[in-house]
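User: My instructor asked us to take a sequence, write out its structure as tokens, and then describe one feature of it. I'm not sure where to start. Here is the sequence I was given:
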Amino acid sequence: MFSILADIFTSKEAREILKNKFVLMIGDSVVRSCYKDLIKILQTDNHLHDHQLKAKGEISFENDTLLEGGSYGVMSNDVTYTEVREFKTNIHLVRFYFITRCYSDYLVSICEDIKDESEKPDVVIMNSGCWDITRYGPNSINDYKKNLPMGIFSLIRVLPSHTVFIWNTTLPLSKEVRGGFMIPEIHDRQSKLREDVLEANHYATKVMKEYKLDVLDLHYYFLNHIQRRAKDGIHWDATAHRRITNLILNHLCDVWDIKTPGRIIFKNNPKMMSLPENYEFFEEKENKANYAINNLPNDLTKKIDQMANSLENEISTEKSNINYNDAKRFKVNEYFATNLNNQSSSQSDFNKHPINIYNQLNYQAISQIAKNQLQNHLTQILTPVFEEKLMQSNLYSSHQQPNYHSANINSRHNNKRKFSYED
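Assistant: Let's start with the prediction itself. The structure tokens for your sequence are:
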């Protein structure tokens, strides 16, 4: 099950959902921030502060208790760092274990703790990825694929059948990351790190499917919210973590058949969201423009093309002076603008960075894009003007006049297609 959209929950509603529940969270510093936001919403509707997100190993946070590691041990960014925290009230129990590898002797000891305790977790939320694929040698991604099934099996064999196990996929990383697991020895691997995260997420999803466990695809969802990522390129702000908490609570409501607050209205499928009537998607507006271009009288199309060509020619005479702002004016991709004068790239460079295929496009390609966009804009602006002039000059009769308002411009729009983040 993939939870993508979530309702919005208050502190009172969160307390009711997790009443008499034991939530166990296992993972790195991002999961620790998820733990902090979860125990925060169990007490108040307020969000976390930045200094709370950055802190680690504190003796107490929002009425929780540091059980072991952290300030009681050695505060470091080493793979041996441990931290166990617990928030406990008469009706709530949330515990967090910091790990740097999905399967290790330390994870086995956590499993032993679960086995020996009388209270078993009702919910287990886990992620392990960034440390696994960076801090354990050049073959770390292959080791991760070997370790993950063993780690998951070690956990589920000590969990009761009613436990809800949720695997969180690793969140998107920035191109340049620093802090935490990023030590100088692995800085040269930064360019490949994001690809490794994708590979690790894909493999983890396959493993969870084999074990029939739930996946919360945070990587997919937060690709649309990268403005919420912290400056270090790894961690996320308080708003992002409250959204993660809402995703978790919404997922648990789905599993336990609890009615959600209904602040976001879903239709039929929990992944589908209702939108205002007559809402137009961006691609539908583009289709209308394309339809208008392809269905104009020939003489009108020629006039628009002539105006676009004349403007494009004026631009081409100044191509030696084109800069980023010129490119931005025509909404050209950032890669185009930053690589206009970089046409001497060798074939080996192209093979080395296949992702940056835009870097290989020359000025002519940019001119064509600018021309096409000018044509679209001119069509939308000038069509009514030319249409009126043509009508006055009787260039075409009234029965030949296209009816742009009644035309079946986009069948998908007429079918009232609903919005989905998976589109």
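For the description part of your assignment, you could build on this observation: The first helix runs from residue 11 to 17. Try explaining in your own words what that tells you about the chain.
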